[in-house]
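Entry:
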Amino acid sequence: MSNALINFKAENPDPGAFPQVKEGATDATVQSTTGIKGLITLITKTLEEQGFINFWSTSLDAIIIDGVKRFQSSKGLNPDGIVGPRTYTAMFGNEFEYVSPSYVKKLIPIDTDAPVDTGEASWVDYTLLALAIGSTVGAVYLIARGK
């Protein structure tokens, strides 16, 4: 476990769900909206440790976002520069919760005897949802996200 991760966990013993962050986000703005201390620092120190950027920061500026995009590309993710559940999972595995309950607007159980495949959700979406609700038993769920 990296020093950045150890320090982050010491400051945030139960951080709750990580928010999606993008260019312009800072430690201060994330802390004021979620109570999570040092999330941007953790992201940038992780990118620095893995060689995607040359310095860590408390804000996501254009240079850091370029490093995020390179990291995302290296992991087979869409290099959009937005740090969300898939990017967090690639960075930290299952160390934290990444799906905010506010993103999951409606959970609809689907009959497992008559599965429906809309083609819009990947196995990663279902895995993240299963982690968020704590169960994979008996159903597949439709995710409806608000805009």
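The longest strand covers residues 107-110.
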